[in-house]
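User: quick one - fold this with pyridoxal-5'-phosphate bound?
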Amino acid sequence: MSNYSFDTLKLHAGYNPAEHNHAVSVPIYQTTAFTLDTVKRSDDLFYFDSAEALYTRLSNPTTDVLDARLTALHPGATGAVTLSSGMAAVTYALLNVTAGKGRILATARSYGGSFDSFEQIFGETGVKYDIVENPDDPANFEALVKEDTKVIYIESITNPNATILDIEAIANIAHKHGIPLIVDNTVATPYLLNPFDFGADVVVYSATKGLTGHGNVIAGAVVENGKFNWKNGKFPQFDGQPHFLVSQQGVPRSFYDVFPDTPFTGRIRAIHLNYLGGAIAPFNSYLVLLGIETLSERISKSVKSAEKIVEFLENRPEVAWVNHAHAKNNKYRDLAAKYFPKGAGAILSFGLKKNDRATIIKFLEAVKVFSFQANIGDARSLIINPSTTTHIELPEHAQELADIHTETIRLSIGLEDVNDLIADLEQAFAAI
Ligand SMILES: *Cc1c(COP(=O)(O)O)cnc(C)c1O
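Assistant: Sure. Structure tokens for the protein plus pyridoxal-5'-phosphate:
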């Protein structure tokens, strides 16, 4: 199907009704295991010589369709593995690239949970991390690449301040040093950006957010394009020949031998999904597939509404600043023109001039259409104060680096009528 455009692929890729009793909607295979039938088939499955489903922790036909659809929505990608949450996707991707050694190079603008995992999970595995204090200049990444740095990890549009990094320049630095670039593309979704077009090697998602877009599921995914050379000496975990990869004929095999086009996601499936077990439920895969059917329509509408709300906020006397690439004088406008011609997402933040805590509480509690909750990318519009909620995990110094302040209010724009959203903010301004 690779000749078709995004909007066709998001409805059809990876699914052939004739292979599923002609069901039009992707069936939910609510089963733990799949019959082995013959010992030959069992051997093929257990020796990784067949990609058919064996046990739902490792794969499932509903989830397989989602993996294939996500792969198709990223031209250049060779494979994907869908997981039980965005955090499973982030941690499995980073566990896979570090394998208990070396350093992660990231920014303080990372999602709070991801940032905290560098210390709380990776610290326990012996992996260290470095934080680029000012990631707006790609040279600052290069300055921190050390002998044992294994990966550069960034987000394509950050949350809550909607900053944009120069992905291509950062990818070039990573590749110059023989390490991959992993991009968390959650806020952008593949509709607004395909990070593989600009040198990313691995893309991770919280599918919980805009990808599914209905605030009804927790899910994640890791997508790869099979281009990075994991055999360059820095990543022995891909070259090794673990006992469980031995062939039916008894020949030792590496991850490259078993998954030649998808060594990265193949290894995540065989190791992290298999042993840590963050498997997505088939019903949740179905919900993500359903959300993706309307991805372009939802994201394009919410981006347009977000831009109108940016213009509205910029003209309010109560507002000190607005962060979104559509804002006048926003310093990411040039990068947005290069990476986000369809718009730079539907997340924005702003600060009130009167920024005492009582005023902020009054504002948050005055809105009626916006929903006060810790999520983004819902069909409903959301509001929150990140400093004491979503980004509370960040130490004060990291909040400072991430440019998150007590007065920062984040909006995630959904699909309501934009005039109702603006009227809702207007009455909240009147309340303070
Ligand atoms: C929400 C989020 C995550 C974590 O995803 P969950 O599905 O909540 O586990 C990771 N990265 C980004 C950018 C997110 O917004």
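One thing worth noting: Residues 85-87, 90, 111, 113-114, 155, 159, 184, 186-187, 206, 208-209, 218, 220, 376 surround pyridoxal-5'-phosphate (CB under 6 Å).
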